Amino acid sequence: MSPLSLEQAQDFARRGFNRRAFSKLATMITAGATLPFASEHALAQLSMIGPLPPDAVKINANENPLGPCKEAAEAMYNVIQKGGRYLYEETFSYAKTLAEQEGVKPDYVMPFAGSSDPLHRAVLAFTSPTASLVMGDPGYEAGSRAADFIKAKVVKVPLTKTYSHDVKAMATADATAGLIYICNPNNPTGTLTKKSDIEWLVANKPKGSVVLVDEAYIHFSDAQAASDLVAAGKDVIVLRTFSKLYGMAGLRAGAAIARPDLLAKIRPYGAGALPVTGMIGAMTSLKTKGLVEGRRKMNKQVRDDTFAFLDKNKFQFVASDSNCFMLDAKRPAGELVKLMAKEKVFIGRVWPAWPNHARITVGTAEEMQKFQKALLKVMA
Hints:
The chain is α/β, with parallel strands linked by helices. It folds into two domains: about 45-65 and about 290-380, Aspartate Aminotransferase, domain 1; about 70-285, Type I PLP-dependent aspartate aminotransferase-like (Major domain) (Aspartate Aminotransferase, domain 2, 3-Layer(aba) Sandwich), CATH 3.40.640. It is built from 15 helices and 13 strands. The protein has helices at about 5-15, 20-30, 40-45, 70-80, 90-100, 115-125, 140-150, 165-170, 195-205, 225-230, 260-265, 275-285, 290-310, 335-340, 365-380, and strands spanning about 55-60, 110, 130-135, 155-160, 175-185, 210-215, 235-240, 255, 315-320, 325-330, 345, 350, 355-360. The strands form three sheets. It has a seven-stranded mixed beta sheet with strand order 2-8-7-6-5-3-4, sandwiched between helices. Helix 4 packs antiparallel against helix 12 (about 275-285), helix 5 (about 90-100) packs parallel to helix 12 and helix 13 (about 290-310) packs parallel to helix 15 (about 365-380). Residues about 40-45 have low confidence and may be disordered.
């Protein structure tokens, strides 16, 4: 990468970085180094459990066991033999396709290998020792790791009684907030925040702050996307990934959708060509008719059947609109995780804000039947 520009250096100084922090971050950016909180180990988010027996049920990482659709798999297979080329044109075609579907201009879409990368970059770009990260609690923790790295304050706001983001509390949590993070549907609860609440937050947030709407799980729900707020020129960045409904967690494709000036602020925090397999798989998935609707319906059926089982057996849980939900273990949830692992059903993980709840991923119908059998045994 090129050396840090004068504009970037002035921006770091304005945001309150001391000389030591400035030097550390600037060195990593100009060297194109991997940031420690964005390493593969960190991204595993405690869900990497090593080799599993062939009959194990792995419903601990919000993965989609279906994998990519047939059309995307074939497109990726066919492009592998061309993998000696960077094939930037495939990345551009993917960005153009996504922009058309979201109703934004092509330069409002920045492709990434998943959505964790732009999430980390947004924290680095918009928070600092003088500008905090505001997020829901419990919420997806990746952004807070990046904030900790640059000594930015993290303000955690409890969810409401209906498990949505408390947008009014978030808007007033810190007058110097740099970034307000909304994951919708939320991870780990799988619950929704109404579009009208997000619109209210955008209209009433602290001056100069940016609202980051992470829509990694939106395709599992009937929620309205926030890309129209981007098209309207608001201080909003929308994140998308193909890791969840599209079943490409290990193949890596995603995007940030925002005004070009906001995207320009996150661009310097990384470099390199994107995997052509992920780019062509994402573009093909976008063009596959009925894919989202079909998989959404399938996930909902298995999720509803699981909830009916939990209700019948008087287990308490938080009903969700996603591919995960929170189960009340009625004890430190880590104990339940260990007991279920002995039954070869791997669930988890546990959030400090809700120590008696474990996050459960919705797997296939067969996997959830095994989950039900194991749960009855260990909770007896």
